[in-house]
Specification:
The protein is mainly beta and 1185 residues long. Among the domains are: 251 residues, Methylamine Dehydrogenase, Chain H; 104 residues, no CATH class; 98 residues, no CATH class; 156 residues, Methylamine Dehydrogenase, Chain H, CATH 2.130.10. The protein contains twelve helices and 72 strands. InterPro entries: Beta-propeller_rpt_TECPR, Peroxin/Ferlin, PH-like_dom_sf, PH_domain, TECPR1-like_DysF, Tectonin_beta-prop.
Length: 1185
């Protein structure tokens, strides 16, 4: 999981951030003033400073924040002078926006604020709908407005061209003030909250920012998105009363607190209306005590009342934003905040520490217990375990004056004893119960005064820090002071509260009168009492933990840093902190415990030197060698009793019958494996079935099996077994196990047997060919030297494929062993060099280089409707229509209740929601219209549209293991690695990628030792891209989302990002979707499945001259370092069936015939991706007579 930040503000207004991978609060050094509150998202953090202004801190990223400004120059044809700037009075402005209604001069386009800078000057856009225009970028039409074309016609009376200029946001990782509005300014703000990024993915980086003014008004910030992080303007939102605090969740939940203590909920928040439509009132959890604070997430709402009690709102979701009822929670807090995944942070009422709610999951949103975050702050001095700082880190605070030196030494020795026992916080405990029991004359417990920690409000929290202490303030009991050590079960049990004896116990009245104020921490009473009643042998009573000695010890006069070393927090925001139940956090590790453990390990490691270890190992090895030699020599003349071993594994399965009618039949499945005297292993598969009451069987030799692949099936746990003959028929053995676990056991066993029979073990080689199925399973094949040999190459249906753990959408590699993958959730992964993982265990998997991998994908269903002349569009279709709730094909019924994740390994992580990002677009409700089922759908309704559909999506998550490590933080949609020839020495390997938003990136610092690289370099483009490929000599080709192709010029080792893009015309009336570059060959695939070859490519003219059609029904293409061509093809005919997603190899490819001659069909169907860019193995030369 990528590293994210937790933000907090202390009572002095200093802003800190805590990384999920760190153990230190880091202060924002660039903050020029104190802050009151902050609210965070993943890409930025907003804050209110003490001048009541709004500030924005955008996190630095390898992807810059860029915005494209454009203006249109319009001209009309004149019979005398041709096209000129003189327009008719009824025409649009000479310089205008795209609509022509707004006057927009180039000099009139200004930067929004000082946080922006121009990247360059204005230039003409010479690209029109994916095709290059004539020189000058003019497009022509008959009149304004009309349909423009790039070609001038006889009736073209007007023309226009587009001017572009980019501006870049430069105030990264710094607090930038939001510019004031030109209109009437709202009054100063007292609270702020951001969220709403899950309402809609478009526009990119969209956020909802809500603010509350000092007068109780609510404001909404318009226009916040990726290319405009500051937003555009404030808009007031009507409220039923004066609001004091507001909270916005990642989705459509918005709650606020009124001055009277009531709560209001915003209703009607949607994709088209992020501000919502109305407010609904919700009563306070306790009618007698109003609410003071509210925090909402995706499906949760937490509240804090005026008595600092914490409440959880059950039943909250997008369909019912009000929820159903309140539940009282344990702990007393002053504020609370909800982060990603509905995780909860809070600030304690008594100690002002930041607490994290542990145990929050999707099934238990309320969590289990509070736990304090105990990590130091940036700039704090580190001390030894015997120092005063260690005492404070153990949970104690001391104030007052130093009475005598002996008191300090007593504390110091006691701390060392406490740290050795692991009992932190013991120094702040009262005298032992044993001493109290034997001292009947001791004074009764008297609660000692303690320093007053001011409650933070919007304006006065800094002034309260210097207010006088209240001598009458008494300490509370454990139930209200320590939420970190209490769980809800303890609160419900109904047991009486236990009072902690005060600092005055066991002291004279004179001592109590001058006693310093103490800050009590939470302690485990049972453990404390147990340690007090078991003093060490011979230990004097005065040596035990005495509170009187502790109370007289102080740091206020001796250490100027003492008063500030335990932070007092005022605000916390986890809106950008990505934490879930599986995240390993280092926020709760006490420095004392870590130091003690380190010293213990270090002392143990010193007991044996490396020289002694080496000698011991050598002695053991020599003894074993002598023993083995002696035993073998004594029995050489005996012949072997057993020459081979045989074992059989049987099971009951179902088999998809070969003959019609095809159906599942119950069979007995058996694997018989035997090993020879020299370690040779082989086996036979048997399928025993009955046909017309006659028992028959099918068999296959293990050394003939080419692949074992899980098959995506809704109702059965199915896998397929391929052999060369079955591959040609397009009809593998299809078997179904009773459970998914049983299927995985059989797959692991069969895969290990196949690898043993072929002598393949360990990780894939650097020359391996990688492929991925439509299910996301990863397979590798070790290419034979004769695979590309001419004229008789090895048939690709004889290639053996073995599975590698993990789950990916695509993978790319090269011959240096560098391999990158991209998941369905656009997360980038790096191959670590291991093998196995997933359901492969034991010897089938490497013990190291295996990591946890997650992936998220969407399950889609379609809601279909037909138009009725009376009622309009309804869910009642014709008898011949598709199901009203179906899959994409319409042949299978899929409802919200019947649709399931791909397998039991996947779990739902979201609810069903309308998907607006469908191909062809959708209207504001997500509908697409067509004349009939099935047809071409569009986003608008016409008179001939009698049917419509909309797509619903629900996300599910997979957690597995494999030899893959995550490469944060930018999500990618495509990646390419330079294909290197064999025995090549490349210092830095060029890696190019495209982000999920279409940005082109170049990875820096990629080597064989550091395959993950160091950082991303953004390469500017005028439009988003979707495919990219790099070939020999730094040839970089890319495909834009509009289907046009581009070539990157001047790419070299000295200039890894190149200079500029050259537009390459696409094939006639086609839009490209993928491009792949080899040594000299360039291939591309268009959206209609046509494969194209680029002719005329030469070192002097790398752009080539034209496209030549090679084949159709192609899904993906991969060109290797030797210009070998492999594809994933659809509609491949076999002797038994037709398959889609088949691996195919282009035959006859050589330097004089780079286009090849024919196709050799391999494994399939169901394949989605293949890459041969790592196979640089030169084929053997065959000389024909």
């Amino acid at each position: 999981m990528p590293v994210s930040l937790l933000w907090a503000v202390d009572v002095f207004g200093r802003v800190y951030s805590l990384s999920t991978a760190g153990q230190l609060w880091e202060q924002c050094r660039d903050a020029q003033m104190e802050f009151k509150r902050v609210t965070a998202a993943q890409q930025c953090c907003w804050g209110i400073a003490c001048d009541n202004s709004i500030y924005l801190n955008v996190h630095a990223s390898d992807l810059p924040v860029r915005h494209q400004e454009d203006a249109y120059e319009n001209q009309r044809w004149n019979p005398v002078g041709g096209f000129s700037d003189r327009l008719l009075p009824s025409d649009r402005w000479q310089w205008s926006d795209v609509t022509g209604l707004q006057h927009q001069l180039l000099d009139g386009v200004q930067l929004p604020s000082s946080s922006w800078e121009w990247e360059g000057d204005w230039y003409v856009d010479e690209n029109f709908e994916g095709d290059p225009t004539e020189k000058g970028g003019w497009t022509y039409a008959m009149d304004f407005p009309a349909t423009y074309t790039k070609d001038k016609k006889w009736n073209s009376c007007v023309r226009r061209r587009r001017w572009l200029r980019y501006r870049r946001y430069k105030a990264m990782d710094t607090w930038a003030k939001i510019p004031s509005q030109q209109t009437t300014l709202p009054d100063p703000f007292s609270d702020i909250s951001c969220g709403g990024w899950e309402i809609n993915e478009e526009p990119r980086g969209r956020l909802s920012l809500w603010a509350v003014s000092l007068q109780g008004k609510v404001w909404f910030r318009e226009g916040i998105c990726h290319h405009n992080p500051e937003g555009s303007s404030w808009e007031e939102v009507d409220v039923p009363g004066e609001v004091v605090q507001i909270s916005c969740g990642p989705g459509d939940l918005v709650w606020a607190v009124l001055w009277e203590g009531q709560l209001i909920v915003r209703e009607g928040v949607s994709r088209d209306c992020p501000k919502g439509t109305s407010w609904a009132v919700v009563e306070s959890p306790n009618p007698e005590v109003g609410a003071t604070h509210i925090a909402v997430g995706v499906n949760v709402a937490w509240a804090v009342t005026k008595d600092n009690k914490v409440w959880f709102r059950r039943g909250v979701n997008s369909h019912n934003p009000r929820g159903s009822g309140w539940i009282s929670m344990v702990g007393e807090m002053i504020m609370i905040n909800i982060g990603l995944n509905d995780q909860v942070w809070a600030i304690g009422c008594e100690d002002r520490a930041v607490y994290f709610r542990q145990g929050v999951t999707s099934s238990e949103l309320s969590g289990k217990t509070w736990k304090a975050i105990s990590v130091p702050r940036d700039g704090e001095r580190s001390h030894s375990s015997a120092s005063a700082n260690s005492i404070q880190s153990a949970g104690c605070f001391f104030f007052g004056e130093v009475r005598d030196q002996s008191g300090g030494s007593d504390v110091e020795s006691d701390v060392e004893k406490g740290s050795a026992d692991g009992a932190f916080g013991l120094m702040a405990a009262p005298e032992s119960s044993a001493d109290a029991a034997t001292n009947p004359s001791s004074d009764p417990p008297v609660e000692a005064p303690k320093p007053r920690i001011p409650k933070v409000t919007s304006d006065s929290f800094i002034s309260e820090l210097v207010s006088d202490q209240e001598p009458g303030k008494t300490s509370r009991d454990v139930g209200s002071a320590g939420p970190a050590v209490l769980e809800e079960e303890e609160a419900v049990s109904g047991e009486g509260d236990v009072k902690i004896p005060s600092a005055g116990a066991g002291r004279s009245p004179s001592q109590r009168a001058g006693a310093p104020d103490l800050q009590w921490s939470n302690v485990d009473l049972e453990e404390m009492q147990a340690r007090h009643v078991q003093p060490a042998a011979g230990q004097d009573a005065s040596d035990s933990c005495s509170l009187s000695s502790v109370a007289t010890y102080t740091l206020a006069m001796e250490d100027p840093y003492g008063a500030d070393e335990h932070p007092l927090w005022a605000w916390v925001s986890g809106g950008g902190c990505s934490v879930d139940s599986h995240t390993q956090l280092n926020w709760f590790i006490c420095p004392l415990n870590t130091s003690s453990l380190h010293q213990s390990v270090q002392s143990l490691s010193l007991s044996m030197t490396p020289t002694q270890t080496a000698a011991w190992r050598k002695q053991i090895f020599e003894q074993l060698s002598e023993r083995s030699k002696r035993e073998l020599d004594n029995f050489k003349h005996y012949e072997q009793a057993v020459e081979q071993s045989v074992w059989v594994k049987k099971g009951a399965m179902q088999w998809w019958r070969d003959w019609k009618p095809h159906k599942w039949a119950d069979v007995h499945f058996a694997l018989e494996q035997f090993s020879g005297p020299e370690g040779y292993k082989d086996g036979i598969l048997f399928i025993y079935y009955s046909h017309h009451e006659e028992k028959k069987y099918l068999h296959a030799f293990i050394n003939e099996v080419t692949i074992l692949v899980p098959v995506l099936n809704d109702s059965k746990h199915t896998f397929a077994i391929y052999t060369p003959e079955r591959t040609k028929q397009r009809w593998p053995f299809r078997l179904a196990a009773a459970t998914e676990l049983e299927m995985h056991d059989w797959l692991a066993l069969l895969s290990a047997s196949c690898c043993d029979a072929r002598g393949i073990h360990g990780p894939p080689t650097k020359q391996a060919i990688w492929s991925i199925t439509c299910k996301g399973d990863i397979f590798v094949s070790e290419p034979a030297p004769a695979l590309e040999a001419a004229p008789y190459p090895t048939p690709c249906d004889q290639m053996f494929w073995r599975q590698v753990g993990g789950h990916l959408r695509l993978v790319e590699c090269n011959s240096l062993g560098i391999a990158w993958g991209i998941g369905y959730d656009h997360t980038a992964w790096l191959y670590t060099g291991g093998y196995g993982g997933g359901f492969f265990q034991g010897l089938s998997s490497s013990t190291d280089n295996i990591y946890t991998q997650t992936d998220v994908k969407s399950v889609y269903i379609y809601e279909n409707q037909r138009w009725n002349p009376v009622t309009g569009y309804t869910s009642r279709g014709l008898p011949t229509d598709r199901f009203m709730w179906s899959d994409a094909s319409g042949l299978h019924e899929r409802t919200k209740t019947s649709a399931k994740p791909p397998s039991t390994q996947w779990t739902w992580v979201s609810d069903w929601a309308v998907d607006y990002s469908v191909s062809g677009g959708a209207d504001k409700e997500g509908w697409q219209y067509a004349a009939d089922f099935p047809a071409s759908y569009h986003s608008y309704k016409t008179m001939k549209d009698f049917v419509r559909r909309r797509r619903w999506a629900r996300k599910c998550k997979l957690t597995t293991t494999g030899p893959w490590q995550e490469i944060p933080p930018i999500p990618l949609s495509d990646v390419t690695i330079l294909p290197c020839p064999s025995n090549s020495s490349v210092d830095t390997v060029p890696v190019w990628a495209i982000s999920s938003k279409g940005d082109v990136l170049c990875r820096l610092g990629v080597t064989t030792l550091t395959p993950a690289g160091s950082s991303w370099l953004h390469v500017g483009t005028d439009q988003p891209f979707k495919s990219i490929s790099i070939g020999a000599a730094g040839q970089v080709w890319a495909v834009a989302r509009d289907g046009s192709a581009f070539y990157r010029g001047s790419v070299s080792a000295q200039n890894p990002a190149g200079d500029c893009w050259y537009h390459i015309p696409s094939p006639a009336k086609q839009k490209l979707k993928q491009v792949c570059v080899g040594r000299t060959s360039i291939y591309s695939v268009d959206e209609n499945g046509n494969l194209w070859y680029r002719q005329g490519v030469a070192p002097s003219y790398p752009q080539g001259s034209s496209w030549e059609h090679i084949s159709n029904n192609v899904r993906k293409v991969s060109v290797g370092p030797l210009d070998q061509v492999w594809i994933i093809a659809d509609k491949v005919q076999g002797s038994h069936s037709l398959s889609c997603g088949t691996v195919c190899h282009r035959l006859g490819v050589h330097p004089f015939e780079p286009k090849g001659q024919s196709w050799d069909y391999g494994i399939g169907g169901g394949w989605e991706h293949i890459t041969v860019r790592g196979n640089s193995m030169e084929p053997p030369r065959v000389f024909l007579p």
